[in-house]
């Protein structure tokens, strides 16, 4: 079973908000809800997903309207 880490991109730094996420739901209003296998939940508002790496098991969120770091591909 593969669980993923969820990070928030702030400036040039990534801060982990959930280490073992099993589910991520994104609402139309920018609300992101992250759940763990054990039912723990973390909600953040005003974010979008900017990167998902299935091989390294992580996901990166960035605040909506935040400036690009130039890493877009």
Brief write-up:
The chain is mostly beta strands and 73 residues long. The chain is built from no helices and six strands.
What does this structure look like?
This protein is mainly β. It has one domain. Helix content is 0%, strand content 59%. It is built from no helices and six strands. It has strands spanning 4-10, 13-26, 32-36, 41-44, 47-53, 58-63. The chain has a six-stranded mixed beta sheet, with no helix packed on it. 12% of the residues are buried.
What are the key terms here?
single chain, 73 residues, mainly beta
What letter string, H or E per element, gives the SSE order?
EEEEEE
Structural class: mainly beta
* Side-by-side strand order of the widest sheet: 4-3-2-1-6-5
Instruction: Please tally the β strands and state the result.
Output: 6
Helical content band: under 10%
pLDDT average, as an integer? 89
Q: Supply the number of helical segments.
A: 0
- Largest β sheet strand count, sense and barrel closure: 6 strands, mixed
Q: How many domains in all?
A: 1
Unreliable stretches (pLDDT < 50, length at least 5) are: none
| Outline type | globular
Rg from alpha-carbon coordinates: 12 Å
In percent terms, what proportion of residues is strand?
A: over 45%
The span between the termini is 29 Å
